[in-house]
Amino acid sequence: MIPKLTKLFLLLFFLQVLLPARVVLADTGPKPSMDFEFKQELPGEPVTIASGVMYECEQPDCSDAAPLMEAGPQRFTCEANSCYAMAYGFSPYHRLELEFSDGQTRQSNIFETAGFDSKYVVTVRPDDLLVESQFSIWQFPRTSIFVVACLCCVAGLVLLAALIIFAVNLSRKS
């Protein structure tokens, strides 16, 4: 019995030694994100985003504002007509400061995190930005949506079973 275990152990040991070592990458799962869609209320030619910063705040008045730190996948990026933020976790309050192709830097109102995958519409006005959250079912984590859908299915099955039992009992009384 012991020689068989020894042979098995040696076989597994040498098999492990012969396999190439691989880099293992670990991730902490889905991360909260924010999508910013822009619309303009400016006269004349539309402007594009040149650069931007998203400030994170713990205080409702943003007196403690600090730029979203860039670390790994955590960052705030902008393209010509949209911005995107991903973080390991967001502060409760935020403010945008964006520079546009017209050379003007506009600052937004203070806004709150709207959900796990938040969506916002940012109105570019002559002197500032107005950020408004957009409700979407996808703001909630995918697992939460899955759990709610499963609970609805289970509730429907229980209701169907109760209806069948009621109908069977009713037919027996007749």
How would the blueprint of this fold be written?
Elements: H1 2-18, E1 33-40, E2 49-57, E3 66-67, E4 75-78, E5 82-86, E6 93-100, E7 105-107, E8 111-112, E9 117-124, E10 129-134, H2 142-173
Parallel strand pairs: 1-9
Antiparallel strand pairs: 1-5, 2-3, 2-6, 4-5, 6-7, 6-8, 9-10
Total DSSP E strands: 10
Distance between the termini: 70 Å
CA-based gyration radius? 27 Å
* Poorly predicted ranges: none
CATH domain class name of the largest domain: Mainly Beta
Structural domain count: 2
Helix and strand composition category: alpha+beta
Helical run tally: 2
Please provide a brief summary of the model.
This protein is an alpha+beta fold. It is built from two helices and ten strands; from the N terminus they run αββββββββββα.
Plain-language structure description:
Helix content is 28%, strand content 32%. The protein has 174 residues and is α+β, with helices and mostly antiparallel strands. The strands form two sheets. A five-stranded mixed beta sheet has the order 4-5-1-9-10, with no helix packed on it. Strand 6 (93-100) and strand 7 form a beta hairpin. The mean pLDDT is 85.
